[in-house]
Amino acid sequence: MSHSPTHATASATVETTQTLDMKLEVVVIPVSNVDRAKQFYAGLGWKLDVDIAKDDGFRVVHFTPPGSQGSILFGNGVTTQAPGSLQGLHLIVSDVEQARAALVARGVEVSEVFHDAGGLFHHAGDQARVNGPHPERRSYGSFASFSDPDGNGWMFQEVTTRLPGRVDAQVTSFTSALELEGALRRAAAAHGEHEKKTGEHDEDWPQWYADYIVAEQAGTPLPV
């Protein structure tokens, strides 16, 4: 005789499913010419992880952007999507102007830095784009766009302060020395404003810097 699962068992199953880590690590990119795409993404300075081809024409190419835990994959026989149909892929950077300049120096055509007229995210295509970074340089609010040779669309998005709960408040991490440098510079600028307000020279600035950087990454109130 069959039995329906008890409420306690069902609740435990739901809870287990909800707390299981699910890490988005690979995005499949539809391309028409694998060698051309490989040359383009290598030219961005991304790390080539694998390029494996089989006798039946099946081929897998895998790249990882600098400092990213997620990667891209393209090749022959890996997707039925139309080449160039993937849009809105976001690369999160701590300084959108510096990131743009780095790709321009590599010969990549990148849009000017822009923000959205609505200020929330950005519209599809070129709609509601306003030239220049967000006027308050608000985190999540400044962008620049570029495309691969097939037209798959990428976005740089500047993020300096995470939304509350977006990052574990107990974990502060940086994927590169450049990213850490940016955080230190923002902390230094904020600390300078702090000293102007108090009229005092803070001897314990390392602790203040540390508190600022941890709060910035966790999305909690910043020290003032």
Range of helix content:
25-40%
CATH fold type of the largest domain? 2,3-Dihydroxybiphenyl 1,2-Dioxygenase, domain 1
Main sheet attributes: strand count, strand direction, barrel closure: 4 strands, mixed
- The assigned CATH architecture of the largest domain is Roll
Count of extended strands: 9
Q: What radius of gyration results from the CA coordinates?
A: 22 Å
Q: Output the CATH homologous superfamily of the largest domain.
A: 2,3-Dihydroxybiphenyl 1,2-Dioxygenase, domain 1
- Total discrete domains: 2
Poorly predicted runs of 5 or more residues: none
Distance between the termini: 66 Å
Strand order of the main beta sheet, please?
Answer: 1-4-3-2
Q: Which structural class do the helices and strands define? A: alpha/beta
Shape: elongated
Q: CATH class of the largest domain, anyone?
A: Alpha Beta
Output the helix-strand order: HEHEEEEHEEEEHH
Overall pLDDT confidence: 86
Fraction in beta strands: 15-25%
Q: Determine the number of helices (DSSP H or I, runs of at least 4 residues).
A: 5
